[in-house]
Amino acid sequence: MRRGRSIKDRGGRSSIRHRLEALGLRPRRRFGQHFLRDPQVLMRIVEAAEVSSEDTLVEIGAGLGDLTEHLAERAGRVVALEVDRDLCEALKSRFQGHAHVEVLQEDALHWPLPDSLRGYGRPRKVVGNLPYNVGTQILLRFMRHPGEMDLMAMMFQREVAQRLVASPGTPHCGGITALLQVHWEARLALRVPPGAFHPPPRVDSALVVFRPLPAPRVDIGQWGAFHKVVKAAFGQRRKTLRNALKGLCGGDLRMTTEWLKMAGVDGEKRGETLSLAEFASLSRSLLKLRD
């Protein structure tokens, strides 16, 4: 597939710091900006996302466009989202003349979903070096729509990544682990040291690849109820389920005990020890309890 003049000629080989200085910019803390500068890491992200000429790639947080460049070399279409207005203008200049690259000044936390995704062809994939301060929130938004994506490859703080791929009952298991596992399978694809970024963060990072399941692992009844149960169970880890969940019953321990019995879940357990099936049973039973 012809791309016209090489995109690589537009990016140049100078360091990210010098390129930012040339634009009169610096990394902005409020946007959580840490720009990937290691070319090997960039290529491994493209490989982990299994990018092909048939794909539409939505990139979250395109920054200076270095990952965008690698994606555009292989993908049929790239939609680059960037919340920073100044970086967005630089991206538009860099990819001017490349019709298969669309640059949008958009915040992934507010980009309309799922309608925005549905405007693009399949296979449809989402890739991003997510800001640490809002990475989990972005993931929570996108993972609600498994039927609209064929794959996601996202960079997180390593500690967060470990929770995303954790198994029930393990130390890293958290609320987001249970929420994610209903519709997705996740694997840790790549660990990335601080030196791969400018400026270097204080922690290691990791790329996680998510694939939507053909069908939900369990019947949760209703997403809102399931989310409330999981959030309450993990909100106070030291408490037993009976005490952690009583807020969903207006503080009534008798009703909470009835609910747990209906769900077939031991109220003396703690949230991190529950299986996905037990969380689903609690969610379905809560809906019955409220009928």
Give a short summary of the structure.
With 291 residues, the protein is of the alpha/beta class.
Element layout with pairings:
Elements: H1 8-11, H2 16-22, E1 35-36, H3 39-48, E2 56-60, H4 66-74, E3 77-81, H5 85-94, E4 101-104, H6 115-118, E5 124-129, H7 135-143, E6 151-157, H8 158-164, H9 175-181, E7 184-192, E8 197-198, E9 205-212, H10 223-235, H11 241-244, H12 253-263, H13 276-290
The CATH architecture designation of the largest domain is 3-Layer(aba) Sandwich
User: What is the tally of helical segments?
Assistant: 13
Based on secondary structure, the structural category is: alpha/beta
Q: Strand-residue fraction? A: 15-25%
Which consecutive residue ranges, at least 5 long each, have pLDDT under 50? 1-13
CATH topology of the largest domain: Rossmann fold
So what's the CATH class of the largest domain? Alpha Beta
* CATH homology superfamily name of the largest domain: Vaccinia Virus protein VP39
- Report the helical percentage: 25-40%
- The ordered H/E elements are HHEHEHEHEHEHEHHEEEHHHH
Strand order of the largest sheet: 4-3-2-5-6-9-7
- The best one-word shape is elongated
Distance between the termini: 57 Å
Number of domains as seen in the coordinates:
2
* Most strands sheet: 7 strands, mixed
Mean pLDDT: 92
Radius of gyration: 21 Å
Q: Give a count of the beta strands, DSSP E runs of length 2 or more.
A: 9
